[in-house]
Amino acid sequence: MAVPASDSSTASATSMELQLFPEADEQTLPAMHSEPEAAETETLESEAHEEIKQEPDRQEVVEPAPVIEAAFPELPPLPPELKNVARTLERMLNDPAQRQGAFASFCAAAYVKPEWAGAASEYLTTLFEDQQDVLAEMTRVPDLIIELGSGHYTLTFMVASRWAAKADLARLTRLAEALIATQSKMNSPEVVDLMLALTTSLAISRYSRAEQLLAAASAHATEDERDALDEAHLWLGAGGIVRGSSQEARDLWDVRLRRPRVAWTWSSPEECSALAQLAECLDPKSEAAVLFQAVVPACWWSLLIARSQEGAAYEASLAAAKAVAHERSQPQEESPQEAPKTVVRQPIIIWRAVPFFIGGIVGAWALALGIWAGPYDLVRSSSETAAPVVSMVPGAPGIQQGVPVPAAPVEKAPEHPNEIWRKEQAASLAAEVPELRPWVEKIELGEWPQFEALLSGESPELPKDNPNYQKLLLWLHLDPPSNAEIRSQVPLLLAALRQDSTVIELWEKLVYPGSLNAKDIQEAALRTQHDSRDAWSPTQRALLNRIVAAGVDSP
User: Fold this and answer.
1) Nearest by Cα to 499 from 180, 168, 179
2) How does pLDDT run along the chain (555 residues), one tens digit per residue?
3) pTM above 0.85, yes or no
4) DSSP H or E segment with residue 391
């Protein structure tokens, strides 16, 4: 059916009406292709206008146009049980006030049975084809997990892509946590691809979750996912470089590393702080360094290279000096003793010994005569004390026997590097949250039953969702209390609060010979592997085992 351009609105409305009401298909509009028919139509219209002019009292009755509902593209079929809630959702599609409730009702009915999930997802993606952001805003993570569990992924992929485009890290993190918790039940290639994509998206800002995702995906990845797996490893390496930086710096790098072609400025305090933190942890030779090289200033990168070369030269010279010192400290090998010379005894001739014998007798007689005639008494009285005897040691100063020798000063053993780091971190944390100092001082003097509610995050003064609660546990790790029971509970509470690489890194720093709470941390590392085994990745469990096996001597 062809219509003139001027009647396009009428034609579209009519066609829409035909689609919604099939019983009206028999009604057709007159064709308007030939010129005679057009002329005839104009004649009829002129006659009608003349009749209206001749009858001024006649009033034309205009009927109101019927309300025409918006037309939808051809929607996929749904199970009969879902058709009623689907019609309600279609009616409320353009009503923001009612749309959210209608959508929730549809999902509550559709994602009850896994066999309905595929059809429901196809229906929603088609219905919201032009409103994908609205669909992504309303979709819940549990419904996506049900869809993936049923073997479908259309809705999940579309919603996750919109979350990533809008940098909605909160929803992406919840999806990642749900996948980690259920990954043992879903190992299809599509789920593995989704895990690798989420790893790339969360590697900078949510490193621990990305690390767990990659560990779960690597167990099921095939050769077809090799490129995606390599990319995920690259971005996780970049996240590992900045994971010790502040959250503001990580958010800045998360945005800029993904847009390397933008000419970013580096003059604000936040930008300068991010560069300063990066300089402390970036190795220019690392694999992920190319991502940072693409966005940082060229002059800054040149300075970083020069600094790295100077550091390498210093390390080489230091290693050489240590090697020389080690060689000097080794005892020198003693030269082999000469074999005793063989003495050939010659026969004694008696006539040569007679003169010496006679001379000896004369000498002894002369000595006795001299002693007897001498004026001095050569025998000491008992009241006199013996003079100190000096025994000379070759190459050493004389040491008088009987005189007390002062003890050599005992050098104090140098502090362990981790002990120095521990004190620095404790001082920094005390300056950051001085309001926690009264609690730390009270805990130092108290017992576990007295502070169990506070340390467990169940007190109104410091609930578990308060950021200072985690900082209190960190403070008690760095400056452990004297009470043994409190000291043993603190690592367990931190392990129950979060299971990520940050906790492992802290424990690795605090487990060393002489650490006051090393044994308590090792016990907590052993217990958390059994209590929260699924929360730790295989790599993290290996690190926990290494902490448990570390040799320490607590005071």
Assistant:
1) 180
2) 333 333 333 333 333 333 333 333 333 333 333 343 434 444 434 444 444 344 444 444 444 434 334 455 678 889 999 999 999 999 998 888 899 999 999 999 999 888 999 999 999 999 999 999 999 999 999 999 999 988 898 999 999 999 998 888 899 999 999 988 887 667 788 889 999 999 999 999 999 889 999 988 888 888 888 999 999 999 999 999 998 888 899 999 999 999 999 999 999 999 999 999 999 899 988 999 999 999 999 999 999 998 888 777 777 777 777 777 777 776 655 555 555 545 444 444 444 555 556 666 766 666 766 666 655 454 444 444 444 444 444 444 444 444 454 555 555 567 788 888 889 888 988 898 898 999 899 898 889 988 888 898 888 888 888 888 989 999 999 999 989 999 999 999 998 888 888 888 899 889 988 888 999 999 999 888 888 877 888 788 888 888 988 877 644
3) no
4) strand 390-391
CB 204 within 8 A of CB 254: yes
Give the residues across from 399 on adjacent strands. 391
Nearest to 256 by CA among 286, 296, 283, 285: 296
Beta strands in 247-359 (DSSP E): none
- Token look-up 């000491």 returns 380
Two tokens, residue 411: 């050098």
Lookup: tokens for 153: 């992924």
Structure tokens at 339: 């074999």
